[in-house]
Design brief:
17% of the residues lie in helices and 34% in strands. It has 414 residues and is an alpha+beta fold. The strands form 6 sheets. Strands 1, 2, 3, 4, 5, 6, 9, 10, 11, 12, 13, 14, 30 and 31 form a 14-stranded mixed sheet that branches. Strands 15-18-29-19-28 form a 5-stranded mixed sheet. It has a 4-stranded antiparallel sheet with strand order 17-16-24-25. Strand 7 (108-109) and strand 8 form a beta hairpin. The structure holds 2-acetamido-2-deoxy-beta-D-glucopyranose (NAG) (2 copies). Residues 293-294 line the site of one 2-acetamido-2-deoxy-beta-D-glucopyranose (NAG).
Length: 414
């Protein structure tokens, strides 16, 4: 037999059976997707992912920052690792990171807004991956670029977190580095949960080709001409409450070329915020709709201003029967529906509050869709096509982000 054909057959055999001993024949085993388990910190409401870094590989907890430009970690509290290498100025990596002459980075804690300078470095990163046969394994990235940061930048992060994991639209953010080193598409999906969520990066066998993926609705991610938007903006054109359109200031809803206005998605904001004038219109309409459903308003419970008695309000699989909120996107056909599970926060057995907050008068971004509204929604970010796919509540389809995580990481259930 022709030796190249023999090799091809061997490859095919290895692909079909995924025998680990085949690996030496094909050193660059290409994973299809990597998965990161996600938890929620109850006191800060931040979402945390765990990655393994260094030699030896030690797990490190990081706060997930969807719009963050890169990964930063407190290197002093990171263990001593033989694979940690500082990046020198003038190197290719340094220019790729768009760092300054000395190759210094500017890591920022985007929760407290504190920023410092830090050293660009590379390190071995290890993450779980799944392939077509759904078997779990480990994918290793040998020179993953990140920034070191001083310990003071950790202030305001969940206890145990050693830095932030940026997933933004930059070459240095995790999805792009994984895509280029592991040779898969620049796309990832987040499925946040109040308990066990998941991030999947690459082409996922569960998301691609499932009923859930077929039901995803797509909307463009907004870019400016020079592609400098690092965060994920979408074109929200209006909001409906129980089917009634609110009259909102169009110029606030549009994103200008300096990045002012518009609507973005964020995992570091626990509840959706709206610029004050939008918030005012939104909450007035919401209270009116709630009244017409005979909901009883009760006193505020910080940080929430609009609270209701939950007595007599029926419960469905998508939460309490409360006014439905539709985020209307590029056309009337494209809407992100928010049910009780994602709009109402249970503060006690009798009281529930509207989980949307006032973002302040003239806030830079008019609407920031936050964590609580994202939970149990599958949201896929495709950086190649600049499209965002969303499921609206998975609970409506009888599934959840915790169930997704079990599908990916069945070993965790043992
Ligand atoms: C809409 O918002 C813009 C920007 O804040 C403001 O200048 C304008 O006066 C607002 N328009 C209305 C009708 O309120
Ligand atoms: C609200 O209460 C009024 C008076 O009790 C009743 O007529 C109406 O049907 C109720 N509406 C809803 C939506 O339950």
């Amino acid at each position: 037999m022709d030796s190249s054909l023999q090799y091809l057959l061997l490859l095919l055999f290895c692909f079909t059976l995924h025998i680990t001993s085949c690996v030496p024949h094909r050193p660059n085993v290409v994973p299809n997707a990597i998965v990161l388990p996600v938890t929620k910190d109850a006191s800060t409401l931040q979402y945390l992912a765990q990655i393994k870094m260094g030699t030896p590989q030690i797990p490190i907890k990081l706060v997930i920052d969807l719009g963050g430009p890169f990964l930063w970690v407190d290197c002093a509290s990171k263990h001593v690792s033989s694979s940690h290498k500082p990046i020198h100025s003038g190197s290719l990596h340094c220019s790729m990171a768009k760092a300054n002459k000395k190759c210094a980075m500017h890591p920022r804690n985007r929760i407290t807004q504190l920023a410092t300078t830090g050293e660009l470095a590379e390190e071995i990163l290890a993450v779980d991956y799944v392939d077509r046969t759904e078997m779990g394994s480990i994918a290793t990235v040998h020179s993953f670029l990140f920034s070191c940061a001083p310990v003071l930048l950790l202030k305001g992060l969940a206890s145990g977190a050693k830095g932030m994991l940026g997933l933004g639209r930059t070459r240095l953010a995790l999805p792009s580095q994984l895509a280029s080193t592991l040779d898969f598409q620049r796309r990832f999906a987040i499925c946040l949960s109040s308990f066990d969520g998941i991030i999947v990066s690459g082409e996922s066998p569960f998301i691609t080709g499932t009923d859930i993926s077929k039901s995803l609705v797509y909307t463009p991610l907004i870019s400016n001409l020079d592609g400098t938007f690092e965060e994920y903006y979408i074109n929200l054109r209006s909001i409906k409450i129980n089917g009634k359109r609110l009259s909102l200031n169009k110029s606030l809803l549009s994103l200008d070329r300096y990045g002012v206005g518009g609507t973005k998605i964020s995992t570091i904001v626990p509840y959706t915020t709206m610029e004050s004038t939008i918030y005012d219109t939104f909450t007035k309409a919401y209270v009116k709709a709630a009244n017409s459903m005979n909901m009883t308003r009760v006193g505020p419970v910080a940080p929430f201003r609009f609270c209701f008695s939950s007595k007599g309000v029926s419960e469905t699989r998508v939460g309490r029967t409360v006014p439905e909120i539709d985020l209307m996107l590029q056309s009337e056909m494209v809407k992100w529906r928010i049910y009780g599970r994602n709009s109402m926060v249970k503060v006690s057995d009798e009281v529930m509050c509207l989980g949307f907050l006032d973002g302040g008068l003239g806030s830079k971004t008019s609407i920031v869709i936050g964590g609580y509204q994202l939970e149990d929604n599958l949201v896929e970010f495709n950086l190649g096509t600049s499209m965002l796919g969303f499921s609206s509540s998975l609970l409506m389809k009888g599934t959840s982000c915790s169930k997704f995580r079990l599908n990916y990481m069945p070993s965790e259930a043992l």
